[in-house]
Design brief:
Layout: H1 2-14, H2 28-31, E1 43-45, E2 50-53, E3 56-58, E4 64-70, E5 77-84, E6 92-95, E7 101-104, E8 113-115, E9 124-125, E10 129-134, H3 141-147, H4 151-159, H5 170-175, E11 177-179, H6 183-222, E12 263-265, E13 270-276, E14 282-283, E15 290-292, E16 309-310, E17 324-327, E18 336-338, E19 346-348, E20 352-357, H7 364-370, H8 374-383, H9 394-397, E21 401-403, H10 407-447
Parallel strand pairs: 15-19
Antiparallel strand pairs: 1-11, 2-10, 3-6, 4-5, 6-9, 7-8, 7-10, 12-21, 13-20, 14-16, 17-18, 17-20
Length: 448
């Protein structure tokens, strides 16, 4: 008898019995209570404040429609495109209303949901989305929009259903729980959250203005103006073969007025031949050598903090101080990077082209900044292949025009732009701090 009791105790240590009648989501994550949330406010199920709208409309072939989509990681609902009805194959679509809660059937498990903004009133979505009307007498759409960004909410979505089935159903959404203060308290919490984010938005506008200012500063220093001609003109346009290097749709799109400094080519300030990077298998771990891919390069020409390390390294791919890299294919064609030893030992990917720069003719930092300016970007647009994947090969880049002031002027330009970029970095840090503080304050207030 004593032995039987010991066996029973042992069994209960490893087994947990749950009644199916009490189970909403059938998976380990849910049954082990890992998706539970707590709050000082009452917890309610979304079915108490949401109503699933199932009405569809029939698309009119002659009408123009906005189509919207949700971004993953709870980044909200945005415009996908605008299309004429005859181009929409599935004629039964759902109509969004401002403040609807929109959920993607498949992408919900990666944060594919959000609140429909004002500018997407009457936008359409397919049957692979679920639309929910919010009872605004009980729940503010803005409050829900903030709640669903929190991990405390997302862990319920993540755990829905079995581990090998990505889609969720409307019934799942309605069973999710949220803390629900009264309307007056919701307004107070939302206002505090928005106040922090409003300051962040003002700073983001300052950052945008500084970036525009950098571009305008370049043009002013060069003494050139943007081509006022439309990129695409209607009607017939005639070109002579003797006047063009390539025969495709991009030809003759990058004209700018002549500036006050001489124009040379990239090839004139490069020593030796361009070389392509390594195509290696990477491992997701840090080691003594970094494998630089185009995705590692930020828009300002720096490297991000996370990187892949190669399993093997060939010496010919090792980068040296002031080696200059340009992306040669894909939607990032023309993106540039200046290697510095501060980044540590590194090799570069095969779709990047390396150039050895003659520093007696050009300051490397000037070259980096120049390749982010309007004249260079317009040359990229004019010379990438229009058919198939965008591409400019290493030899073709040597023909890229380069406005080349005297070295002292180059130094002055770099110095001024460096000051502006330092201001941008400072403001971006402030923006991140403000947004982080807003999220932390909200989470503490709602989830404790």
């Amino acid at each position: 008898m004593e032995s039987k009791n010991k066996m029973q105790v042992s069994a209960n240590t490893y087994l947990k019995f749950t009644s199916l009648s009490n189970t909403i989501f059938w998976d380990f994550y849910s049954l082990s209570n890992k998706n539970s949330i707590s709050s000082k406010y009452p917890l309610i199920k979304l079915k108490e404040v949401l109503n699933h709208r199932k009405v569809s409309i029939t698309i009119d072939d002659a009408k123009l429609y906005k189509r919207c989509r949700v971004q993953v990681q709870a980044k909200g609902v945005i415009l996908r495109d605008e299309v004429i009805g005859k181009e929409i194959k599935t004629k039964k679509q759902q109509l969004c209303k401002t403040d609807d809660f929109l959920v993607a059937e498949i992408d919900a498990k990666v944060g594919g949901y959000g609140i429909v903004p004002n500018d997407l009133q009457d936008a359409i979505v397919s049957g692979h989305y679920f639309l929910f009307e919010i009872d605004k007498a009980k729940l503010l759409p803005e409050f829900l929009g903030i709640v669903v960004k929190q991990n405390n909410f997302f862990k319920q979505v993540k755990s829905t259903g079995s581990t090998n089935y990505a889609a969720i159903r409307p019934s799942h959404v309605l069973e999710y729980q949220i803390p629900l203060p009264d309307i007056a308290q919701q307004e107070k919490i939302v206002n505090a959250y928005n106040q922090k984010n409003h300051h962040a938005q003002l700073l983001e506008q300052k950052v945008n203005n500084l970036n525009i200012g950098i571009g305008n500063y370049f043009l002013s220093e060069f003494g050139i103006e943007k081509n006022s001609e439309n990129i695409t003109s209607k009607g017939l346009k005639i070109f002579y073969f003797k006047d063009i290097d390539r025969w495709d749709v991009w030809v003759n799109k990058s004209n700018t007025s002549h500036g006050k400094y001489p124009t040379t080519t990239l090839g004139k300030i490069v020593i030796g031949k361009p070389s392509y990077g390594a195509n290696v298998k990477g491992v997701k771990a840090k080691s003594a050598t970094r494998y630089i891919r185009i995705t590692d390069i930020n828009e300002n020409g720096t490297l991000n903090d996370e990187f892949v390390s190669p399993e093997s390294v060939e010496e010919k791919y090792l980068l040296k101080e002031n080696d200059f890299l340009i992306a040669r294919s894909g939607n990032t064609v023309g993106k540039t990077f200046l290697y510095k030893e501060k980044y540590g030992c590194a090799i570069y990917a095969g779709y990047l082209v390396k150039y050895n720069i003659d520093t007696s003719k050009v300051i490397p930092e000037y070259l980096l900044e120049y390749t982010k300016s309007y004249p260079f970007k317009m040359w990229i647009d004019s010379n990438q292949r229009a058919a198939g994947q965008p591409n400019i090969n290493g030899q073709e880049f040597l023909q890229a025009p380069l406005i080349l002031p005297p070295l002292e002027i180059q130094k002055s330009i770099v110095s001024e732009i460096t000051k502006q970029r330092e201001k941008i970095i400072f403001l971006k840090n402030q923006i991140e701090t403000m947004k982080s503080e807003a999220e932390k304050k909200f989470k503490k207030e709602i989830f404790g």
